[in-house]
Structures are given as C-alpha cells and as structure tokens.
Amino acid sequence: MSxxxxxxxxxxxxxxxxxxxxxxxxxxxxxxxxxxxxGIPDEWVGLVVPGQFQSRYYTVRSxxxxxxxxDVVVHETGLVTEWAAGDCVGDTVTITExxxxxxxxxxxxxxxxxxxxxxxxxxxxxxxxxxxxTLVHAEVPDxxxxxxxxxxxxxxxxxxxxxxxxxxxxxxxxxxxxxxxxFWMAGESAQMRxxxxxxxxxxxxxxxxxDVMGYWRANAQRQPRAVDPGxxxxxxxxxxxxxxxxxxxxxxxxxRAGEH
Length: 260
Known about the structure:
Elements: E1 7-17, E2 22-28, E3 44-48, E4 56-59, E5 62-64, E6 67-73, H1 81-84, E7 92-96, E8 110-116, H2 120-129, E9 133-139, E10 153-157, H3 167-172, E11 181-188, H4 189-202, E12 210-216, H5 229-238, H6 243-257
Parallel strand pairs: 8-9, 8-11, 9-10, 11-12
Antiparallel strand pairs: 1-2, 1-7, 2-6, 3-4, 3-7, 5-6
C-alpha cells in the first residue's frame, strides 16, 4: 500500500504584504474540497510552487471556508520566497496533506512559545487555541503587534543580524513559571540544537513537556523546514531511540538538504 502523502492543487486567490519580510497567501479552488485540517495548531503543509518540483514546508495559518492561508517569510533567495515576493496571484501550486506536532499535556498550567519570524504563524495560531497563561518571545526584524492575539504576554526581540539568531541565549535566561507547563519553539537549527540540550540536560524536562524544531539553517538558503520532522520522529520512536538521538538525526537530515 502506498504511503505517499495526498496532494492538492490550489490557486493563489490573494496576496497581502503583512510587513517588509512577511507575505500572506490565500489559496483556494475546487481541488481543495477534500482538504482536511488536522486541528493541530502548528500543522504544516508541503508547498510546491510553479517552476519547482521540491516542496518546502509552511505552517497553515488558517483553514476556513475552503480557503487555506499561509504566511511566507520573504528574503533574497529561495525556492518559494522569490516566487512569493512577486505577483503570484492566479498561479497554481501544489500542497500536501497537513501534519502537526504540538501536543500540550492536558494538565499544563502555562505555555511558553519562542521563535523567529518563520515560527510566528505557528505561534499566533497556537496562542489562539489555548486557554492557559501564555508567554511569547518573538525574534523578528519588524514588530507585528496586530499579528498575535491580545491575551499572550509578548516580548519582542530584534535579531542580532540578517540570517542570525540569539534565541538560545534568550531561552537560557527565561524566568520559568511555577508548576507544570509546555514549551514550544522553532527557528534556526543550530539554536534549536542548543535549546534541546538545555531543556534535557539543565532543565531536565520530560520529552512530553516540549517541542523544539529547526525550521532553517544559518549560512545557507533560508527555507522554512526543508525536512518534514514527522516521519523521522515516528521512525526514531519505533526504533527505540532517545529524543536527543532523534533530533540529532533530524538536524543532520536538514544539514544534508542544505536549505533549512
């Protein structure tokens, strides 16, 4: 039996520049009729744009009324970003079925969300979906105060430079709330590796208390999530590997792809 992910064609209905670095694309069309959201707030889809055959993974910002919204970070080069930076309305793209990983335990009393601009769509959707105390640390080149819901306690951070991040140091300095909670973070891969080590070795959090994923890699083409983490994580668990071993394998796969 084939395990290939289901694919859907979609048309770009609208394009809106949310900032100098973030573009919102609204996708629709009759071929999306069979699309079903997972309901997981950080769910992502693979996106293949005209003239390309490789998919890149983007967070589903929303799915409603037969329209799927994705927010794309635009920068100088990349398979999707150069296309999204231009007039793409009317173009046909291909998307894959959604997958997600956010799994906050039922008893969590608080939630910490940390990420850069590539993670902001997931942070916004997650924050809209929970009813516990939520703290956000967002490292973005331009503050987007209207992008996030009002309820979270938000700290806006400036990146240290283009294609750089200092989120690992930020997390090491966080004043953690009391009680049990959940930590979710996404961004530059090297920063994520450092944070996983901090959470496992210093904070000694169980694997069920956090989710940390590398979306892109510094000093390479800045493409969100070149490798789908879902299959790697499931295969690692089935093989009895530790979380640290699984995420090391995921990071290595991203490095081989060369386009985080």
